[in-house]
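Checklist before submission:
- one chain only
- standard amino acids only
- sequence pasted in full

Submission:
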Amino acid sequence: MDTKIISFKEALSQCTGKKHILLGNGFSIACRSEIFLYKNLYESADFSNNEHIKSLFSKLGTYDFEEVIQVLDKSSFILPLYNTDPNLRNSLKDDSSLLKEILLKTICGKHPDLPSEIRDSEYLNCGLFLQNFDCIYTLNYDLLLYWTIMNLMNREDIKIKCNDGFSTSQEKDGFVVWSSENHNTNVYFLHGALHIFDDGDKMVKFTWCKTGIRLIEQIRYALKTNRFPVFVSEGTSKEKMTRINHNAYLSKAYRSFASIAGNLFIYGHSLAENDKHIMNLIAAGKIKNLYVSIFGDENSKNNIKIIENANSLVNERLNYNPKIPLNITFFRSKSAKVWR
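Returned file contents:
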């Protein structure tokens, strides 16, 4: 395959106008691969009471939780065509829900306890990377982006605009409250995050400064008391959209991403089918230039698939919006030096 791959610096030099970034799991892996690689999450997960669910991973030849969730969800959907036993279908749906809970608890259990476990130089490098962008969108659930934003707020050597829409002027039981009327928001957790909770009438954010309790401790306690964060881990893209549409914060974030134009950089994401709802927004939107990160050998199986997925968006754009063609450029992820 003869695909030209340039450096992140070269990609930036090509841009005019607004630049946005979409972060995938590769953003977290680049910081702490020993934690956030799917294989490591799988090996840390507690399947002691659910060995049959664990066996699904080996049967499917994957460590990807979302891939297994997708299989369970799709199977429960088509099963009535072959078997009318409702108990069997409910069992598949229950296992899907249980696996989402296991994933959430595994991420939370493996997560660094303190922001200080990320080196100061790593926060600085990440800030230098993020300051290139007008809007920051992430598909990750962990606290790394949030911790970085908090760290940058207190620095004198770098200044970037980071507003997640949660206002300190509004509080509820010590939590910071999200306002849909905050028009300066430029940081969005498209699939939710560990520190964002639906409190019934309001969306709230856990913070250390309001409680004096470490953020990860607050989240772990919430899980123990069966209180779960806003967390989109549904298997299929369609099911993710259903979850998004039923949450005011998520749907606002989704609409924001749909509205962007100019340049979009994608870092650490495979453009896979289970996030087709996000890819559809790119194909149908007003983005002119799409820059996609490539890690390692561009001729590897995974990278060939990423390149194919990216190029398919060019053809899809012609169907949606032929007056604004989509240009694809690939850049080497390591050249961005996101964390180090």
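Reviewer check: The longest helix spans residues 86-110.
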